[in-house]
Amino acid sequence: MKRSEINAAVAAAQGMLQQYNWALPDWANWGRAEHNREPELSAWLVERQMGWDVTDFGEGDFASRGLTLFCVRNGLQGRADDVPYAEKLLFVGVGQETPFHMHKIKVEDIIVRGGGRLAVEFTRERSLGSHEDVRVDGRSIPAFNGPVFLEAGQSVRIPRGLQHRFWGEDAPVFVAEVSQCNDDLNDNFFLGGTGRFADIEEDVEPAVLLWSDPRA
């Protein structure tokens, strides 16, 4: 994935944030120079995987399979001295799929904050445990009767071990995720050998650093 594509994805997400009057911490706009000026905070953020994250899942077609995220807060899985929760913002394009994956540790609520409808689909394939139902705003519905379509304000709880994918159905979607601690390095399990991160071609300078970017 080209850095210019990542810059454009972040700019589009920033535009959506402005549309919904949603502000981020000051370090959301930091480039390499700002991170180098506050190395202690920068290292703390990186350890918790907090900040921007843009991925094409290693497949080279961001518009079809990709996701832009911003992790606002997060703890460290398995650390009793850290917070037990995470909060992310997700920016999902029309027909832009986050492919089937599950988490063995994390339970998450996916919440549509604005924009179009979010389609969420589940599969039994390589899921762990018995998950015949999911809860949409507390209501139990069958998990495997086709995609669940969420309008603004609606949410679905996704239990650990359940393979799921999602995409924007009719317009770009502004999504929030509230969950237990998130670990994108170790707690994502994809169907079909999909990767989690993009291979980045540095065709331009980064507008902001991703949490996974080197700081030096």
Automatic annotation (TrEMBL):
It holds the Pfam family Lyx_isomer. InterPro entries: D-lyxose_isomer, EcSI_cupin, RmlC-like_jellyroll, RmlC_Cupin_sf. It comes from the Bacteria. Keywords: Carbohydrate metabolism, Isomerase, Manganese, Metal-binding. The keyword Manganese applies. Gene3D superfamilies: Jelly Rolls (2.60.120.10). Its EC number is 5.3.1.15. Its cofactor is Mn(2+). It is an enzyme of class 5 (isomerase). One of its GO terms (molecular function) is isomerase activity. It catalyses: D-lyxose = D-xylulose. Belongs to the D-lyxose ketol-isomerase family. This is D-lyxose ketol-isomerase.
